[in-house]
Design goal:
Layout (H helix, E strand, L loop, with lengths): L1 H9 L25 E12 L7 E10 L4 E11 L6 E16 L4 E12 L5 E12 L2 E12 L7 E13 L2 E10 L4 E15 L3 E14 L7 E12 L1
Antiparallel strand pairs: 1-2, 1-12, 2-3, 3-4, 4-5, 5-6, 6-7, 7-8, 8-9, 9-10, 10-11, 11-12
């Protein structure tokens, strides 16, 4: 219980400020896979409205060192409409598994990230990660606190959530949602997932795609966002 409370307290610690919620983001799981290395590309593009065509691409390399600890380095890039792509930040992140609540079938973990911004102040982020798996169902909830490390900046609170089910073979379908509360900006919509196994190094390629519709104040700037996530996993 003490470790669980410590994870909850981490959300109150000032932690890059939120870009458009969910753009090139993912919903993190709380379960770690010891020995697994991940190479990931995450792409998101806004559609419609004043920000139509703006996109983001994140490249990530991560390793699960044990059932309790994961670490990664990220390269965050962005491209406003009709402009060239630029590197926005380099970040390091870590996940610590806090608890397994058997009665609820719930895994709990804490996430931390520190971003080195190229054109402005650095930023930090924390997340409380919750994951419930039962049969063909996988549900995840990330509670997020972010802060630009500059005097006077406030902590921004948001969330990422997903729920999906196995339908046939390696094919899964469900929904995802991202948002931030103070600005009332949200994106929600369907997602599909699949994976290709028996690749080099004994690896597998996980693919997720979907379209999230703008809700609340997010509709002032776009109609939604298209997203594609590619993750190559292998044991190393």
């Amino acid at each position: 219980m003490r470790t669980l409370m410590a994870g909850l307290a981490a959300l109150l610690i000032a932690t890059p400020a939120m870009a458009e919620p969910g753009l090139a983001g993912k919903v993190y799981g709380a379960r770690l896979e010891p020995g697994t290395t991940e190479l990931e590309a995450r792409y998101g593009r806004l559609t419609g409205g004043a920000q139509d065509g703006d996109d983001a691409l994140i490249l990530e390399a991560a390793h699960h060192f044990s059932e309790k600890f994961y670490a990664a380095v990220l390269l965050e890039t962005g491209r406003p409409r009709q402009a060239s792509r630029s590197v926005d930040a380099i970040a390091v992140e870590g996940i610590v598994h806090l608890a397994r609540i058997e009665a609820l079938g719930l895994d709990v973990a804490a996430y931390g990230e520190y971003g080195f911004d190229r054109g402005g102040p650095n930023a930090a982020e924390t997340k409380l990660l919750l994951q419930h798996q039962a049969g063909t169902f996988d549900g995840r909830l990330n509670l997020i606190a972010e802060k630009t490390l500059r005097s006077g900046e406030e902590v921004e609170i948001g969330y990422a959530a997903s729920a999906d089910w196995a339908l046939a073979g390696k094919f899964r379908a469900g929904a995802a949602a991202f948002g931030e509360f103070e600005g009332r900006r949200h994106y929600v919509g369907p997602i599909v997932k699949t994976e290709i196994e028996h690749l080099p190094l004994g690896g597998e390629l996980e693919i997720e795609t979907g379209y999230l519709f703008a809700v609340g104040n997010a509709r002032h700037d776009s109609q939604g966002q298209a997203r594609l996530l590619l993750e190559y996993e292998f044991v190393f």
